Protein 1
Amino acid sequence: MANHRRIKNIVLFCVFTVFLFPSIPPLLFAEEAVSAPAYQQKIYFPKTRQQLTVHFISGLEKGPTLLVFGGIHGDERAGYLTAGRFTHVKIKNGSLILAPRLNAAAIKKGTRQGLGGDMNRLFDLPEKTRHRNPDTKVVDLSKSLIQRADYVINLHQAYDFYADRWISRQRNPSKWGQSNVIDTPTYTLRNGDKLEPGRFAQKVARRSNDRIKNRDYQFLVNNTETSGQKSRHMEQRGSLTYYALTKQHKIALAIEATKNCSLPEAIAFLTIAVNAALEEAGIQSDNLPSEDFLMISREIKEGNSKPKI
Ligand SMILES: [Zn+2]
């Protein structure tokens, strides 16, 4: 009974407060909206081989949302280690969503493929058969995250260096390293509006290259012209970025660091690229991860005893 009375008194107090000070509840609500958690993490598919964590970081001011995936291929360490370095970032405006270890089973094995094959070829599986692939749930999660984003970045790593013409066996159009990969420079929507991943990729490359002194490691834009009839890369029609661009109309880039350097250097290149993408998207932060590979080497060594990245 005493509890009942106490609850009744609290309810009465609230009703009178609202009646006497009608401006208080909206103020309380407004404050709650402003001080909403700037960081949240969610664990998906717990206690399975596909368990993965997604980090949601938001600033207090409005702005675009940038989504970063790492580890869609489990043998590209720089990709998932770089994405993991952004989980402690605080941003002033907009949002940052991070899925650093998308293909957990592949990462654990250290192989390109996880449970259901090459995950970066599963984004266009036919409706009738897709449920048979064990990675479909991870692909569907990725698709739902893409829905929340304005810009999508998928981090990778590959041997050698992309070039738009044949220079050498190590540096030619069939290679991927040190490139910002786009499916097409301009994508025209049905209503006539245009998306320009090419422009974004060029600007990100320019910002990145301002910080990369060694010209051999500077980024180029690699246009796979994925939907073209004579495309050299039709396999990319099943990729995450092609899905993001053509089905959800997002600016999407795959960023590839070379494997022809040390791991800390590759992480430094990808960190530079993500930092550049954040800047280009207009998302501001005071504590972006260091781009110095010596610092990154130290982080990795410390990480052996205490996981930091
Ligand atoms: Zn890859």
Protein 2
Amino acid sequence: MLGTALLRTVGPPIECIAATRLDADLASAPQVDSLLSRHRPRCVIHTAAYADVDGCTRDPERAMRDNALASAVLAAACAARGARLVMVSTDYVFSGEKTVPYGVDDPPDPVNVYGESKARAEAELARAASDYLILRTQWLYGPGGRSFVAAILKRAAEGSPLRVVDDEFGSPTCTDDLARALWQAAVSAETGVMHVTNSGVCSRLELARAALECAGMDGVAIDPIHSSEWPSATRRPLRAILDTRRWSETGHEPLAHWRDALAACVPALCKELTIN
Ligand SMILES: NC(=O)c1ccc[n+]([C@@H]2O[C@H](COP(=O)([O-])OP(=O)(O)OC[C@H]3O[C@@H](n4cnc5c(N)ncnc54)[C@H](OP(=O)(O)O)[C@@H]3O)[C@@H](O)[C@H]2O)c1
């Protein structure tokens, strides 16, 4: 999903080569070496992950392989070639129990396998990479992938009942906005950890209602539920809000408010989902 946004937003003077699992399994050092030798990138933007949170709970081995091991292999290969590495990470490295937003220096304290595997990926970069930036983000949605926003629009269009949690909070982030930030990060000299999300905070329920409104389906009813009523074997952080100050303090424009970003993106999502 985020990879397709990078391709939609790239432009001169940056030249980009996109790679998928068909080009290299990132957990295989020989395949990664061969890919990087072929293209000799100055910077690698690492968006690959096993990002299915419940899937990670069911298959922790795959989570550790595709998230932690793959990042370690890529970090070593980039360091060996002097390539900059920009990796996308997640609010799920935090428990969400803190009452104020998480800063870039807060230690990870994940509460599920996905979060743990991404926290390990971050630690691998800190250990093995030389020039690296970890960019944590939250609640992504956009064309070309699976997301909460797309799922809500699809269910509403099908006339399926909607139950949405009202006690989970975050900053919904549009993949095109994040992709533009990633291109800036790729050519910057910043290292370490940054938090980048669209501005503002809302609950899942508010996000679902806003998405339906943008799609002209505001008459669709939603049954608000407590997170404990949602059937899932995975514990999720309920309030892992990311403090994005380092992004703006280093001269970058803050990303648009989540409501404006959502309004700009929903028409493309509706088109993709063939919702009129
Ligand atoms: N989605 C969110 O809400 C969210 C929120 C915060 C952060 N993030 C992070 O943002 C990034 C992008 O997420 P996304 O939603 O765009 O994910 P996505 O749509 O699931 O795309 C991830 C891609 O990574 C590929 N991949 C996984 N393991 C690989 C490996 N070993 N070798 C090569 N390719 C591999 C997957 O290929 P296969 O399909 O073949 O496995 C898939 O194409 C991830 O790092 C994720 O952790 C996502």
